[in-house]
Amino acid sequence: MRQPGPSRRLVGALLVLVALAAFIINTVSRDSATGEVSATANPTPIEIQKPNFFIHIVGQVRYPGIYSLEVGSRLIDAVVASGGFLAKADQASVNLARTLTDGEQIFVLAVGERVNESVGDGSSGSGLISINRASQAELESLPGVGPALAGRIIDWRSANGGFKKLEDLKNVGGIGDKLFSGFSKQITL
């Protein structure tokens, strides 16, 4: 005769259910403790982009034009973006390691070419001297500007991507308010 109580099949099924529940609980708690994300989550990666700015490169490059570069780009990046130097380019006419600024124009000269040959002379059509294009001699023609100061003006514009406004000349060592006012009516950007 059989004794009253749970059947062996029922006990076996309960044991399987308890084992399965223990396995699921153990797996879930292990994943949350290690910080793992379940397979059902699909996070979208966030892409951070650097801001861009524009430069204009002309002269002895394959594709002169306006290019958008990332902030912090150097002149070599502009040359690469424009397709590289042409065979007759004077690579020493530009500082390839210089950091660029928004809105500047870069002139790549040909071997043997001088600044005033490639972009016209340093004067504008009105007879004013362009502080961004003038040669050493043209800058020396300004009252109170000698060879040393003209050299510092050229060095400053090369290092800083040119002058954005006339008053930037006061950032060049040796040019104060008095000297600047003495030639300010004779210059242009």
UniProtKB/TrEMBL annotation:
Transmembrane segments: none annotated. Signal peptide: none annotated. Pfam families: HHH_3 (PF12836), SLBB (PF10531). GO terms for cellular component: type II protein secretion system complex. GO terms for biological process: protein secretion by the type II secretion system. InterPro entries: Endo/Exo/Phosphatase_dom_1 (IPR051675), RuvA_2-like (IPR010994), Soluble_ligand-bd (IPR019554). SUPFAM superfamilies: RuvA domain 2-like (SSF47781). Residues 55-106 form the Soluble ligand binding domain. This is Unannotated protein. It comes from freshwater metagenome.
